[in-house]
Amino acid sequence: QVQLVESGGGLVQAGGSLRLSCAASGSIFGINYMGWYRQAPGKQRELVARITGGGSTNYADSVKGRFTISRDNAKNTVYLQMNSLKPEDTAVYYCDAVVIGSDYFNHDYWGQGTQVTVSS
Questions:
Q1: What percent of the chain has pLDDT over 70?
Q2: In the Cβ-directed half-sphere of 42, how many Cα atoms lie within 13 Å?
Q3: How far apart are CA 25 and CA 63, in angstroms?
Q4: Which of 32, 39, 51, 75 has the CB geometry, 3.0–4.6 Å to 98, for a possible disulfide?
């Protein structure tokens, strides 16, 4: 089994910054993708940013130029640096990891979510 533990959420004023972290632990043979999704009240969960083991990234258009995703493969940890935050960034942010298990199959795991609230 794999656990994802998120940290770094909180309340910040518009224009401020936050850094989210997500550490994966457990039975991990390797990790393909790690990423961040978010879900605002009344809305569907959406991709924020994702990064491969090789460092390739993709971002939602709404966060390009403001958010940066990075990854420490040695620590099985992914980070999301969020700058120039806007009230519309308010959501629960979820970490996602596609992990290669001991069975050599990909398994998708989710964190418990961390609240990010941006006040105007």
A1: 100
A2: 1
A3: 28
A4: 32
